[in-house]
Design goal:
With 125 residues, the protein is α+β, with helices and mostly antiparallel strands. It contains four helices and five strands. The longest helix has 16 residues. The N terminus is likely disordered.
């Protein structure tokens, strides 16, 4: 009996702690990971055509610093027509000469669109 209870609790915890399966949320998480990893090709692939140049400009602003994500948790906050809105908690920490600057992600609502069957980040508010 204890083994069954342990298996059930383990399954619940694994499911609760897993990454999102929501494709709009997943693309924002991957976009932010690509940004802090300074992966321009991944960032471009995760951006809609209208947003790609802005995404790469944002990437350029982080080139001279080391970056990391902390406590990233994203969720869908609404749908406005064809745009899914995704908000994240956590922060990007940029370090230069042992000084950290934090960028709180909760101040942005990412705009995600579906183009050609793919979910893509297309800006933020």
């Amino acid at each position: 009996m204890h083994k069954i209870a342990l298996i059930i609790v383990t399954c619940i915890l694994v499911t609760a702690c897993g990454k999102s399966t929501d494709p709009a949320v997943k693309v924002v998480e991957n976009y932010l990971i690509a940004l802090v990893n300074k992966d321009a090709s991944a960032l471009s692939a995760l951006s809609c055509a209208d947003w790609e140049s802005y995404a790469l400009l944002e990437l350029d602003s982080f080139q001279a610093v080391s970056t990391r994500l902390e406590n990233l948790i994203c969720s869908t906050t609404g749908i406005d027509g064809t745009v899914t809105q995704v908000n994240c908690q956590g922060k990007i920490v940029a370090s230069y000469n042992n000084e950290d600057q934090e960028f709180n992600l909760s101040f942005r609502t990412y705009q995600v669109v579906q183009q050609g069957g793919e979910y893509l980040v297309c800006g933020y508010k």
